[in-house]
User: What shape does this take?
Amino acid sequence: MMQTMFRTAALAAWFFCGATTAQTPAGPCPPQLQPPTQAQVQAAARAARDRGALWRITRDGSTSYLFGTVHVGKLEWTLPGPRLRSALAATDTIALEIDPTDPQMASRMAGTRGKAPPPSIPEALAERDTNFKNRMTPKITNDPTRFDSGDPELQCFRPGVPRANYMAYPFQIVQGTDSILMTYEFADAVRTVYLKDPGPAPANSWMGWNVGRWDGNTLVVDTINITPDSWWLDNLAHPKSDALHIVERFQRPNRDTLQIDFTFDDPKTYTRTWTGKKVFQLAPPGYEVLEDVVCEDLLDLDKKGRY
Assistant: This one.
């Protein structure tokens, strides 16, 4: 049976607000858009015609569509024309390109899933907003040859827990008798889970102090002693404190699936505990976690090769 996937793609465009003339009063830039009425939407839908570019790709019995358009806020460009409607009707899977790091988009996505954002105290919300606002703002450290940004990921720091599992990089789990080793492709991060009580943590660390135990076929991992100001909980810049305690439950519903259920407790930053879930698929045979060299492109090296 032919399986069809439809994917939308946004085409980049740049628009500049120029100087206004004496006959044209100055307005906001970019202009503020007003939501259309239901009657306007219905009228635009009846008159909708094909705009933008629609590609069709067929291979191995499957057909995919790629659609791109720049609608510039014009209502008549946002509604599908006849060819696009036909492609949608023949589609059983739709992939949308969105920005999950946008707080408004993340909030809407959370609402769609029926889950509220982390219950932050006011100070934590303010810190999150500041972090996110400055995530791409370059700064210079004490070393004048190195330029960082606000996001710890772009500073090439260890991602920490649980963000290491949220990133679009693979990781590997190696099970031993007394410990379990988790290696992450990003920043070559390594996490050791002790299966026997190792005693108190000697110090805070990037990936925390991880102690695991088996509950039937479920691996339960308690993580504490994470470096307080080293990283964010996620890509949305949610902060944490030195009181953060994470409990993870690793399960394999089937051979090729790994599910991690998280429970977060950080009384200094959040008003109550909350939970999350992440599902992973096993990589194909022969796949290896590679050495991460992306930071060589992100960091400014001096002539001597030092950071």
